[in-house]
């Protein structure tokens, strides 16, 4: 499927960009416009590897396409460096929302780790307030442009530091003031959710929802810990749940699959998988199955009834958008409008919102796809 210069594509004659979409797994520090990195970098004296915006965008994409999550994460040194002031955080958050709205997203959750943005003297609370100011400015700008969007914060703790309980309390403190959920990010392998059990127990006692990065750089034990220790309501990526599936036989298009207990639990409880196709390729998350998008177990999981959702992970690093991710899946697996609608309905059902607001999203998606 050809993707035009604006990143759009057609399915059944319909613009994917114009379809209403939900974004659940989208990192703030992975979604900066290269031009913004250049401008803010100049202001703080940051030594950039490439001085112009187009060249910098290409450089970040190439560095990210290494097949290693560790190498992939190093590109964030640039983006976080320009997000250490109130002004920088507010601008990046505003542009984040504007870019989502331009891509047809009607609800999004932005995940970011406040502890990584206090190097310029901001407190954790001031950093969250700065991001919330930017989100609201972006929502207002989208409304003036005739687009409706709402974005909530997923306050994130870095799994390899010792501040998870502090960040969990920060997230709960901002409930009703922008924060809708909690996440842990950073190096997954070797840092299971069980290390942060006290934070997750606190969040559970406060009935505050969590999504946990699991099943990306580590396998089934990481997913199990996310569910048991992290009380996760969604799995950040979760692609390696497919390791708990055994294809017993194939007969034409018919595939007989045997479920492990963990996979059956995730499928039967409709725990959303925050799959990010391009990112999963870049970080080597699907290397067990291959190195091409067609090797991704996305379609297997979808056909087996898992609650799959489509996400970008890091728009800048993957040089992508939600429209582009959907177009790539259509091209690879021959999905139609009904399939794309199913992905959005899964995401709406998994959003960290009250049930009434999730039902409103579901109605908006159904109406948008009907039109």
From TrEMBL:
State the Gene Ontology terms under molecular function: adenosine deaminase activity; metal ion binding
EC numbers for this chain: 3.5.4.4
Q: Which UniProt keywords apply?
A: Hydrolase, Metal-binding, Zinc
Where exactly are the transmembrane stretches of this chain? none
- Where the record annotates domain Adenosine deaminase, the positions are 20-366
Q: Required cofactors, per record?
A: Zn(2+)
Q: Name one Pfam family in it.
A: A_deaminase
* GO BP annotation list: adenosine catabolic process; hypoxanthine salvage; inosine biosynthetic process
Cellular component terms (Gene Ontology): cytosol
Instruction: Tell me its family.
Output: Belongs to the metallo-dependent hydrolases superfamily. Adenosine and AMP deaminases family.
PANTHER family, per this entry? ADENOSINE DEAMINASE
Q: What is this protein called?
A: adenosine deaminase
Species whose genome carries this gene = Microbacterium lemovicicum
């Amino acid at each position: 499927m050809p993707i035009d210069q604006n990143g759009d594509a057609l399915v059944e004659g319909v613009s994917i960009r114009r379809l209403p979409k939900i974004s659940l797994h989208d990192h703030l520090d992975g979604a900066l416009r290269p031009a913004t990195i250049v401008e803010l970098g100049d202001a703080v004296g940051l030594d950039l590897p490439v001085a112009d915006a187009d060249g910098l965008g290409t450089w970040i994409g190439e560095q990210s396409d290494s097949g290693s999550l560790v190498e992939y994460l190093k590109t964030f040194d640039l983006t976080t460096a320009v997000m250490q002031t109130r002004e920088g955080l507010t601008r990046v958050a505003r542009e984040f929302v504007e870019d989502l709205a331009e891509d047809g997203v009607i609800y999004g959750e932005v995940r970011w780790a406040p502890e990584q943005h206090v190097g310029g003297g901001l407190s954790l609370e001031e950093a969250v307030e700065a991001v919330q100011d930017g989100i609201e400015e972006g929502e207002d700008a989208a409304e003036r442009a005739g687009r409706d969007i709402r974005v909530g914060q997923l306050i994130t703790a870095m799994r390899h530091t010792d501040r998870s309980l502090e960040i969990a309390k920060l997230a709960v403190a901002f409930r009703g003031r922008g924060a809708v959920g909690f996440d842990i990010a950073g190096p997954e392998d070797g840092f299971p959710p069980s290390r942060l059990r006290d934070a997750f127990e606190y969040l559970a006692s406060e009935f505050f929802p969590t999504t946990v990065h699991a099943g990306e750089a580590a396998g089934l034990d990481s997913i199990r810990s996310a569910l048991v220790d992290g009380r996760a309501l969604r799995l950040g990526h979760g692609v390696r749940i497919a390791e708990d599936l055994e294809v017993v036989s194939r007969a034409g298009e018919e595939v007989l699959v045997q479920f492990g207990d963990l996979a059956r639990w995730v499928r039967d409880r409709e725990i959303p998988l925050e799959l990010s196709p391009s990112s999963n390729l870049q970080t080597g998350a699907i290397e067990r199955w291959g190195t091409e998008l067609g090797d991704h177990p996305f379609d297997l999981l979808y056909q087996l009834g898992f609650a799959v959702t489509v996400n970008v992970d890091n728009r800048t690093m993957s040089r992508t958008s939600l429209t582009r991710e959907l177009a790539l899946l259509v091209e690879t697996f021959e999905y139609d409008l009904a399939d794309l609608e199913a992905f959005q309905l899964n995401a709406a059902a998994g959003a960290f919102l009250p049930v009434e607001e999730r039902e409103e999203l579901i109605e908006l998606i159904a109406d948008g796809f009907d039109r």
